[in-house]
């Protein structure tokens, strides 16, 4: 490794904002910032905007110290790690992002899925520090996930490893998923799914429906509202079965819950863990924890930088 290059840049590309951080090799952030995501014209301006922003925020002498850039993207990456295969929120198809950024900045780049980046971020600097085997779950508008085994992300043959939001759910309902499938896990176990379940229960009971957010449902659970209680019971049962199935397959020691719904804290995590304990293999039952993610929207930035750090054998010796 070039001993003069002792900085990393982590980038997390979201549908609304792109988040950046300049950090040292131990993960100490020296500067962070964000820019709006320009998704006009099929997102073709995004790569140039990344480079322009980096040059504007980091002085030339500091940029010369940057060993590499890790970029988390909301979609699958090609097996060779060079291309964003598809990113629906950005309107991207087959974008050779690695080559574009490397050519413009003259700095090495690694790409990875944003949920995988967040999983690694939580392992490196968040709720799963000291652990190398974990299941990371994001519960937001959809359900995302990242699986880390022996310190490495499980990508799979088609860069679709960890897409737990599309585990099929057996149900009498017929919920359409954004992927085109029916009754995927995220149609029930996301913030969207939670609200839809509450709405359906009120509708079936011929009770009035008032627009509500997930936090309203959790408040109603505390207020002993029977429809909210039944909604949370169904939500945690479906999610608990899915996560227990994953646990029975990969046998990790930690489940980290992130995304907007994780803000419910123990009101969600405690009933979810009880459900998981109902379904996991007995050997696992007393040997895993369910924790709230700690890093919030910085998780992907940390994880992206971490991947660059660990992808370079010569750089790995610098991890402290």
UniProtKB/TrEMBL annotation:
<keyword id="KW-0808">Transferase</keyword>
<dbReference type="Pfam" id="PF00480">
    <property type="entry name" value="ROK"/>
</dbReference>
<keyword id="KW-0067">ATP-binding</keyword>
<protein>
    <recommendedName>
        <fullName>Glucokinase</fullName>
        <ecNumber>2.7.1.2</ecNumber>
    </recommendedName>
</protein>
<comment type="similarity">
    <text>Belongs to the ROK (NagC/XylR) family.</text>
</comment>
<dbReference type="InterPro" id="IPR000600">
    <property type="entry name" value="ROK"/>
</dbReference>
<keyword id="KW-0418">Kinase</keyword>
<dbReference type="InterPro" id="IPR049874">
    <property type="entry name" value="ROK_cs"/>
</dbReference>
<dbReference type="InterPro" id="IPR004654">
    <property type="entry name" value="ROK_glcA"/>
</dbReference>
<dbReference type="InterPro" id="IPR043129">
    <property type="entry name" value="ATPase_NBD"/>
</dbReference>
<keyword id="KW-0547">Nucleotide-binding</keyword>
């Amino acid at each position: 490794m070039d001993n003069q290059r002792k900085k990393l840049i982590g980038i997390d590309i979201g549908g609304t904002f792109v988040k950046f951080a300049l950090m040292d090799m131990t993960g100490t952030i020296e500067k962070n910032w964000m820019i709006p995501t320009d998704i006009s014209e099929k997102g073709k301006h995004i790569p140039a905007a990344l480079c322009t922003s980096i040059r504007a925020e980091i002085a030339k002498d500091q940029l010369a110290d940057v060993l590499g850039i890790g970029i988390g993207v909301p979609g699958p990456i090609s097996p060779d790690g060079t291309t964003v295969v598809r990113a629906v929120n950005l309107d991207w198809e087959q974008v050779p992002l690695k080559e574009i950024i490397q050519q413009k900045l003259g700095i090495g780049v690694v790409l990875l899925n944003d949920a995988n980046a967040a999983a690694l971020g939580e392992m490196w600097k968040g709720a799963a520090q000291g652990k190398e085997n974990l299941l990371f779950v994001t519960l937001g508008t959809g359900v995302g996930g990242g699986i880390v085994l022996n310190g490495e992300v499980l990508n799979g043959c088609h860069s679709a490893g960890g897409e737990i939001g599309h585990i099929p759910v057996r149900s009498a309902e017929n919920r359409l998923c954004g992927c085109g499938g029916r009754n995927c896990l995220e149609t029930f176990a996301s913030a969207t799914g939670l609200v839809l379940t509450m709405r359906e229960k009120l509708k079936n009971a011929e009770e009035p429906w008032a627009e509500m957010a997930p936090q309203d449902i959790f408040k109603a659970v505390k207020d002993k509202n029977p429809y909210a209680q039944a909604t949370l019971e169904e939500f945690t049962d479906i999610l608990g079965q899915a996560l227990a199935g994953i646990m029975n397959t990969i046998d990790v020691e930690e489940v980290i819950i992130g995304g907007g719904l994780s803000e419910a804290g123990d009101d969600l995590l405690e009933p979810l863990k009880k459900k998981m304990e109902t379904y996991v293999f007995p050997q696992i039952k007393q040997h895993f924890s369910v924790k709230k993610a700690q890093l919030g929207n910085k998780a992907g930035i940390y994880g992206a930088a971490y991947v660059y750090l660990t992808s370079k054998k010569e750089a790995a010796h610098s991890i402290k």
